[in-house]
Amino acid sequence: MPPKQKKGKKKTKKQLERERQLELAAKAAEEARQRELEIQRLRELKAKEEHDLLDEFFSKEKEILKKQAEEIKSIHSEYNHLYKNVKHEISIEKNWEKYLQCSKIPNPKNESDLNSYISVWKDEPICNNIHEPNTELLEMQLPDVESILCVDIFNEYTKALDEKNEKDIETLYNHLKEIYEIINNKYDKISNLLLENIPSDLTDQNENYQFTKKISKSEFGLWCNITKNPRYKTIEFNDKRQLITIPKPIIMESISIRLIYREELPELQLYKANNKEQLAVIGGLLFLDLLELPEPKIETNQWIIQPVLSNNGVVKRVNYEIAPPEDTEIIDENMNSSLQAQWSIEVSYFIPPECKILDTATVMQWDPIKKVWNNEGISDVSINIESGLVKFKTINFELAALVQEKYSEYPIINWKLKYKSRNLAILIIQGEINRIVLEISNKGCRLKSPIINIMNENFNEKWYNPNLLLMKLSQIGLNFRGPKNPDEITLNDNIIKNPEAEKHCILGISNYLPMFNFRKCEYNSESPTSQVIFQFMRNKNADIIEKRAKYLYDKELKEKEELKKKKEKEMTESDYNSNNIIDDYNKENENRNIENSNDNIENSYNELFDPNNMEDELIDDESDDDLDNKEEIWLSVVMDASYILDENKYQICYIVNEQDLINEVLNENPENPEDTSTSTMNNMPVNTNASNDLKTDIPQNDLAIELEEEHDIKHLYKFSPKKYEIMNSVYQVFDKITDEKVIDAIKLNRSILFEHNLRVILHETGILIYN
């Protein structure tokens, strides 16, 4: 009989507890895995059901969306046709006015006349006597070119930017570039003549030659170091508006310094950097040149021997290079900085004090070879914001300017567009730093706020075309001309939206502005690139406008009916023969009456937005300038330019009630859903209760609840056919929720120029696609 095996050692309570804990952990892990699998299954099931629902929906709605897309094309075609006709009429009127003025300045759009004028002006002499030069002839030539021709060309250039006419943009830009090259060449020639004819009978033997004058748009200064007197360290130009402190290396050389300062907006467009760093010039351009000084004239009894600087009659520039002390082999960084300080010139000049200057603004110089702005060799920059005084040191004699970030106001914090009165709208934009209020009308655009006091120009009262106004604002530091390309800007994680989506939004907004106000939606920046989201609300005058439209519409119908009955009565009372005799006469009268009736209809609708019309007065509510009014109820419009389903792309647009989304996230239903929409919006389903969500056959267990809790407001903006009714474009969305009589009134009251200016300013500011 084998021996009995020894019993194993009895497990302790601690070991048993540990095994139990391991079993529980394994069981919990398995349950968690099964839970994850179930959640994944629920997601896939819900995604499949959503896909099938969308596929079924788009298969039914495809033809309707296609018809709506064709309607949008016809609307664009009609707009382009009307704008072209209006533009042609304006062009004829302007040409006639210029003809009556007997102006010798050519039309910028007439290539042959413009080229002939520039060619003739280029060859005109700059002074009458080259041995006794003065600037009188140049002062007579430049005002016509700078104040009239350049302004006319630049106006046409900015209009071409408004219209996206690439051919005209390039042509007019090249003309501006050519004209300013000729202007600078003429300054080179007059400078050369002044240098070659320095008076030999200066009043003081220790005095240097200096010439300063305001010539047309330029502040011109020329200084010649004849005496090499070390006591002369500061050069004053144009009543001390520009100062240059010269270092010892220049004082001890026979050299000349020239300074030209101009604040011409057209010229600023010629100095756009090729690199990705986007900078805007504030104020004007400061041209600094170090010129060779000719030997003095030798005068005898009957002869004058005069050295000539150049054969082509232009100045000869001198390179300004730092030279280390003799017997110095190695220059460390400290020694190099010390040398730079010794060789630097200190320059100061004034820019307009109303400029909005950022803390990051600095002085840079233009590299003509690389075509970029850089700050190499520049130091000790100081800016007095109140007086507009700019000071800096530099070792480079190059074009200099005060620059700052071009897109400093982006991304836009907030914006609001509201209807003011007939063909007048207010656009309020809050940027990262500044806030502006613009007025848009059929005359153009103008700045309402802030008030800008520019000398010799009533800036806040003058109307400009959209791009011209935004460029003028940029020149004084208000940078609200938005980026159009992702390569132009790198700020935060914001991205530029699909331009097609923006185009649809602008079309709808520009056509239905009289009935609605519009503003930014905070979820626009978080939505996909294909989507543009903004908010709208019926404006305070919408009910009055609707009432007037219906009244005028019914009034015209009643008048037509009475006219028809009157004619029928006249026909029954007259005999047959008389009718035959006057048949042609009646037809002519009938046609005339129809024309008069149409005119009366249009005139009546013109009264629609007249504040003095009828007993109800339009409300002028300045409180709408508040961008953050929490008491107002706004609805959101989602325009998706490329909704993708199985590699098929659709353009869809729908309305979202943000309050309902919040209630869905909180698993609550709104107490009074009717209060969140207006009477005119009942035709458009707007984000109904959570019960209309996509449903599955899965019971509402804790897994389904957990799945629903993953959704946030941004996710709920996603389109679902059971929640939203879609259209092809924003235009059709507003068309459906607006009364037909009001639509007719708006179309008859339409101003193509107002619509054009509104479209351009919305696009150029980029408030829809980048905020």
UniProtKB/TrEMBL annotation:
Sequence segments annotated as region (Disordered): 564-584
GO molecular function: beta-tubulin binding; microtubule binding
GO cellular component: axoneme
Coiled-coil parts of chain: 13-52
Skewed-composition ranges (Low complexity): 574-583
Entries under InterPro entries matching the protein: IC97/Casc1_N (IPR031826), IC97/Dnai7-like (IPR023247)
Keywords annotated in UniProt: Coiled coil
Domain IC97/Casc1 N-terminal as annotated: residue spans: 26-231
Family: Belongs to the DNAI7 family.
Protein's name according to its UniProt entry: IC97/Casc1 N-terminal domain-containing protein
